[in-house]
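Saturday, quiet lab. Running sequence design on the structure tokens for the scaffold JK sent over.
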């Protein structure tokens, strides 16, 4: 669905600041604009942004496959079901996707003459699934608007248009920064290290480890917390003597005995201080996200 609620502060790449506007992708494409009689013709489709909306619609409509041969994972071209040379219009209901060989072979034939009379009927069917998903997205928009903060929404087509215009690669945090009409003409991503939130879960419910034959070979305790810690907690351990003297920070793997595994070494449980309790998520930063993106200026 996309969203842009927080980005790293330019002054401090290790902290985050909330933006004044909550942004969310409300739809994959603008179904109302595409289907409205007054703007579904050539006037609407001549716009650059509109072209992205049309392509997103057609990709969803035809399942990202050639409408004629069903080829997938191949470059697809926007094609007129009834060719313009035969009086066909530029309305969205007269457009389909075709691979290059099918598009060339079809030429100035209609879809029916090309052996696919069902294409015209299929192009006129509404996207019921997309409408249902878009309804859910608008419900999310209502929840965001209820917070009282300014909320902006945009389609997936607009997000793709903004990202392409700014020359950004296809990654989630770039999409989040390109949602909506307020996306600036220039966007500086140099030095930005996005925080990725990954759902890791809380372990599993399996109470016994099995060998390759399916027989139990070890059993787990029902107790997940020992000495005030559980596996997955982020801790700081200050070791003052022994082989691993120093300060160590990371996620801990606990044991029933007072010695935990931290960053591949054993540390006493008494030296650990909790920094963040395990919540089922990991928060890594992309190591390569600090590389400058060419062609961008300050936001």
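Result came back. Writing it out in full:
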């Amino acid at each position: 669905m996309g969203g842009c609620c927080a980005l790293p502060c330019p002054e401090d790449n290790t902290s985050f600041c909330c933006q004044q506007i909550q942004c969310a992708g409300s739809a994959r494409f603008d179904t109302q604009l595409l289907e409205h009689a007054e703007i579904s013709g050539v006037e609407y489709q001549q716009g650059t942004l509109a072209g992205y909306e049309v392509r997103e619609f057609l990709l969803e409509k035809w399942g990202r496959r050639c409408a004629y041969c069903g080829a997938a994972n191949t470059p697809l071209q926007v094609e007129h079901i009834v060719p313009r040379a035969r009086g066909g219009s530029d309305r969205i209901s007269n457009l389909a996707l075709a691979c290059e060989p099918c598009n060339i072979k079809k030429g100035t034939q209609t879809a029916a003459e090309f052996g696919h009379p069902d294409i015209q009927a299929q192009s006129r069917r509404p996207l019921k699934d997309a409408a249902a998903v878009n309804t859910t997205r608008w419900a999310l928009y209502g929840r965001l608007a209820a917070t009282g903060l300014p909320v902006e929404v945009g389609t997936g087509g607009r997000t793709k248009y903004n990202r392409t215009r700014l020359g950004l690669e296809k990654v989630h945090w770039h999409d989040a920064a390109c949602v909506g009409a307020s996306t600036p003409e220039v966007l500086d991503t140099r030095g930005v290290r996005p925080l990725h939130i990954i759902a890791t879960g809380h372990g599993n419910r399996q109470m016994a480890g099995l060998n390759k034959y399916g027989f139990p070979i070890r059993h787990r305790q029902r107790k997940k917390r020992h000495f005030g810690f559980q596996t997955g907690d982020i801790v700081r351990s200050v070791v003052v003597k022994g082989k691993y003297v120093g300060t160590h920070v990371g996620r801990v793997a606990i044991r029933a005995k007072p010695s935990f595994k931290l960053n591949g070494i054993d540390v006493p449980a008494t030296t650990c201080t909790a920094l963040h309790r395990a919540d089922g998520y990991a928060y890594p930063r992309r190591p390569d996200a600090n590389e400058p993106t060419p062609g961008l200026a300050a936001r």
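Notes for JK: Residues 1-21, 31-47, 289-299 have pLDDT under 50 and may be disordered. The chain has two domains: 1-196, 208-282. Ask whether to fix the surface positions before the next round.
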